[in-house]
Specification:
Blueprint: H1 3-18, E1 24-32, E2 35-43, E3 49-54, H2 59-68, E4 75-81, H3 86-99, E5 102-107, E6 112-117, H4 127-140
């Protein structure tokens, strides 16, 4: 198996195991269109769904992947390793903020996640497609 894939899967698994909420459930590899979302967060109270894309190296690709499915989700987030340089961190935060995408930084050294930026609700949602994603994750936790 490719080391970057294994590391990305490990990053995602650590995120899943560290996530603790009575109101939100997480689901891996949820199909949307002709691809799958790394993690979908489903809020049991509100019915809101969030797409979370994980990347180890190419944070711009994570943003693009999230934006490609934006019409199916209420919120978009990405999770990338925390850059060592403050200027790089600020640039990623700015880019995500400009696009309304929430951001987690993964601290590989401490094996911890930091939520740096809250997502903004997606304005243009295709309700039919969103409903099919909600239906899919609903079948997973029944």
């Amino acid at each position: 198996m490719n080391d970057s894939i294994a590391s990305e899967e490990r990053q995602r698994q650590v995120f899943l195991s560290s996530f603790n909420s009575d109101v939100e459930k997480l689901f891996c590899e949820v199909p949307v269109f002709c691809r799958s979302i790394d993690v979908v967060k489903y809020n049991l109270k509100t019915g809101n769904i969030t797409a979370i894309e994980f990347k180890l190296r190419d944070w711009k690709r994570a943003i693009n992947q999230a934006l490609c499915v934006s019409i199916c989700f209420d919120y978009l987030e990405i999770c990338v390793p925390k850059p060592k340089k403050d200027r790089t961190q600020e640039y990623i935060i700015s880019e995500c903020g400009n696009k309304g995408i929430g951001l987690y930084f993964y601290d590989e050294y401490n094996v911890a996640f930091e939520k740096v930026l809250e997502p903004v609700r997606v304005q243009d949602i295709w309700e039919t497609q969103k409903s099919s994603v909600v239906e899919y994750v609903g079948r997973l936790f029944q």
